[in-house]
Amino acid sequence: MTTTRPVALVTGASTGIGRAAALALAAAGFETVGTSRKTSGADRRDGVTFLALDVGSEDSVAAAVEEVTERFGRIDILVNNAGIGSSGAAEENSVAQAQRLFDINVFGVMRMTKAVLPHMRAQGSGRIINISSVLGFLPAPYMATYSASKHALEGYTESLDHEIREYGVRALIVQPGGTKSSFEANTVEPDMPLPIYAEQRRIADKLAVAVNEDGDDPTIVAKAIVAAATDSKPKVRYTAGRSARLLSAAHRVLPAGVFDGQIRKTNKLAG
């Protein structure tokens, strides 16, 4: 089976940003495939075909990409959205815990990219859209491991984009701010909690919940993803939502000392 429509593949599409992106791409005319670890077999809902996929598994990634290309004949857009969060002071997260997070947030993106890129190069076109965060350029006290994964993702994406542009393929970044979603349910608590950090961790966790509760609807981020997928002259970075745009502007124009002080004030850190 092949299709005359462009094909989009979205990871982590069962809820939140991923689901909104899959629906928005389908509405924009893409033959859309959404993936989730929880999907049982292939099924179609709301115009989106769902497949099981674990981005932490080489075999699962290879099987899913093969199924999509065999069924539809091509992949034009890859949206790397699957990810998990973490909380706690850096000292409270073991290296093993950090490795598990990077295995999804960073190496999962690399697995998907390596599986899809040969198909895009062969057809001479394609876009790889990686869902980062404002924490890809901001420090995040008590979310250091997560922030590090998003900083790594941004460096990887921008470097990759320079490598593949001459083959008609682009690698792009979407940076949401706070977003109403069930992201907290996929946030891992520290596996080595220390009493000295307990109160500040509680404050940071409360702030993170409030930011998302007051954040943008996932459809706002989905619009940025559709723009990245369809713009004739795409930007390397798309900030998604008002808070993301304001934070990006502040990070660019405020003196470093002022910005540092604002981070400490927002997070209620002493000194």
From TrEMBL:
A UniProt-annotated Pfam family: adh_short
Keyword field: Oxidoreductase
Gene3D superfamilies: NAD(P)-binding Rossmann-like Domain
UniProt KW Cell cycle keyword: no
First and last residue of the signal peptide: none
InterPro entries named in the record: NAD(P)-bd_dom_sf (IPR036291), SDR_fam (IPR002347), SDR_oxidoreductase (IPR051911)
Superkingdom of this protein's organism: Bacteria
UniProt xrefs under NCBIfam families: PRK06179.1
Membership in a protein family: Belongs to the short-chain dehydrogenases/reductases (SDR) family.
Name listed for the protein in its UniProt record: Oxidoreductase
Origin organism lineage: Bacteria, Bacillati, Actinomycetota, Actinomycetes, Kitasatosporales
